[in-house]
Amino acid sequence: MATQNPKARLASLLALCGSLLAMAPALAADLPSSKLLPPAPALPPFYSWTGVYLGAQAGYAWGQDRTTFSDTLGRAFNGAAFRQSSDSALGGAHAGFNYQTGSIVFGIEGDIEALDASATLIAPGIAARIGRDWQASVRGRVGFALDRFMIYATGGAAFTDFDYHLQNAATGLSESATRSATGWTAGAGVNFAYTDSLILGAEYRYTDFGKVNETGRGPALGLTVRHEPTTHALRVSAGYKF
Question: On the CB side of 133, how many CA atoms lie within 13 Å of its CA?
Answer without folding.
Answer: 3
